[in-house]
Write a structure and sequence with these properties.
Largest sheet: 3 strands, antiparallel
CATH topology of the largest domain: Tetrahydropterin Synthase, Chain A
Distance between the termini: 162 Å
CATH class of the largest domain: Alpha Beta
Structural class: alpha+beta
Order of helices and strands: HEEEEEEEHHHHEHHEE
């Protein structure tokens, strides 16, 4: 061996120790699983019966699993899907329905969901069920009902029908929202004209009713005045009229602006009053 060469010597058992360390590092690397926020994991045991369904899903955080096993990670927070659907009304007209659904997997049954349905449960279960429920519900209503007054009703019915099926598939359905109902332009225009005519008719009926009430009010008022005049006329005797005439004459005579001349006696003994003009 020359002076420029350096002899490398490992301690006894050193190679074996290094090999063990490498195996441990690889084992940890292959076995480490990190589950993020809003997620859960389903454990699949290659040599232990497949999908684990009898224990809770793996929660958030760091987990060590055997390298020959596998973890399937699911989003368990509420998610939203938008869907545009072509459906038929009760009279066979094409209706476009825009809806969205809020959903999430049932965490306690995540293993069963993975085993029986799989990761693509949205396209396998949720969307087909919503479409079927929408066709069934919308088919009960006319375009006019869908356009004007029944949107809340169809939203509730679609949700209830979808939920019946989805709840048995290890999925939680929180809500279905009907965003828009689009009718054929000609049908929409016809409905709007009809609604406008109905509004005008209601307005006309309101004006008629108002005029009728006003006429009734005036009739009652006129009747009241007539009754009052009749009672007053019946109470005015000749003696009362004479007294009133004398009272009025005295008031005129006391006025600074009045210049009167009594030239004789009038009807019923009342004086005749003449002004300066």
């Amino acid at each position: 061996m020359s002076n420029n060469q350096v002899e490398l010597k490992f301690p006894k058992g050193g190679v074996f120790t290094i090999v063990i360390l490498i195996v441990i590092v690889v084992f940890i690397f292959k076995s480490a699983v990190t589950i993020g926020s809003g997620q859960a994991g389903v454990l699949y045991k290659t040599f232990g019966g497949g999908v684990v369904t009898d224990t809770p899903a793996l929660g958030e955080g760091f987990h060590i699993v055997a390298p020959w096993n596998k973890v399937y990670i699911y989003e368990v927070r509420r998610q939203e899907i938008f869907e545009k659907m072509k459906v038929l009304s009760s009279n066979g007209l094409d209706i476009q329905l825009d809806a969205s659904a809020w959903y999430k997997p049932a965490v306690n049954d995540l293993g069963k969901l993975h085993q029986e349905i799989g990761e693509d449960y949205l396209n396998r279960i949720i969307l087909p069920t919503i479409r079927s429920a929408a066709r069934s519900v919308v088919g009960r209503y006319t375009p006019e009902q869908l356009y004007s007054s029944k949107r809340d009703a169809i939203q509730k019915e679609i949700f209830e029908e979808t939920k019946k099926i989805v709840n048995n598939q290890y999925i939680v359905l929180d809500e279905i929202l009907v965003r828009d109902v689009t009718l054929p332009p000609t049908i929409k225009d016809a409905i709007e004209r009809k609604l406008k005519q109905e509004q005008e008719s209601l307005e006309y009926e309101f004006r008629l009713a108002k005029a009728k009430k006003e006429a009734e009010r005036q009739r009652i008022e006129a009747k009241g005045k007539a009754d009052a005049n009749r009672i007053l006329s019946a109470s005015l005797t000749d003696k009362i009229l004479q007294d009133k005439g004398i009272e009025a004459t005295l008031k005129l005579s006391e006025s600074n602006n009045s210049k009167v001349v009594v030239i004789g006696s009038g009807k019923d003994g009342l004086p005749i009053i003449l002004g300066n003009q």
